[in-house]
Structures are given as C-alpha cells and as structure tokens.
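Researcher: Re-running this chain for the archive, since the previous output was lost when a drive failed. Same request as before.
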Amino acid sequence: QVQLVESGGGLVHDGGSLRLSCAASGRTFGSYTLGWFRQAPGAEREFVATISRSGRNTYYSDSVKGRFTISRDNAKSTVYLQMNSLKPDDTAVYYCAADDGTRYTPDRVTDRRNNYDYWGQGTQVTVSS
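Model: Regenerated structure tokens:
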C-alpha cells in the first residue's frame, strides 16, 4: 500500500511555469513506476508522463512533450512534474499515480491508466489566457 499526496498546483498565466510534487508514504517508493495524469472538466482522465523505477526511462504524451519534465527523488519518496510554457489547454486537475513495478524490468514505463494501482487526490492547475 502507498499513499500519494500532490501539491504545487495553482493559477498561472499563459506561458508560465509550475512544479508539481507528489509525496509518497507506505511501501518502498523505489518499487513503483510513477505517472502523472490530468482531467479537465467534462473530459476523460488522460496520461501526461511516466517514469520508471530506475528513473532512467521517461515517456510523455505528445501534448506535453518538450514542455513538461517528470523526475523522481527516491531518497525523498517524491515524484515531480516540472511544467513550462503552460497553455490554457493544460488547465486540469493533475493526479499522480503509482504502479507496483516489481514484476517488471526497472526501466519499464506505462501510459495505461488501468495499470496504476494507487492514486493521489489531485491538485488543480489553472492557466489563464
């Protein structure tokens, strides 16, 4: 079992930056593949970024590639999402998620929502035009 708590959301202007954090407690943080998803009003929850257990491998949705960076600090049991060049279309509730990755290779990543076992409560990001 792992508990996830996101922070760092807020209101920012078009072109601005934010850094989201997700702190984990519970089982060994390094056991998990981690991901960020987002959900805009009236839309499905969609994949944003993922990072492997090893931290060596990352993968992004096309809509954020080149603007967002996912990273992890296993010593602090925290995963981050640095978001630059934000656009109004990035407005959503952002969720971090954890997938028990011990049955896979350390460099495995996944963008499939159903693969993730644990979810945080979400943090609101609003980008004004």
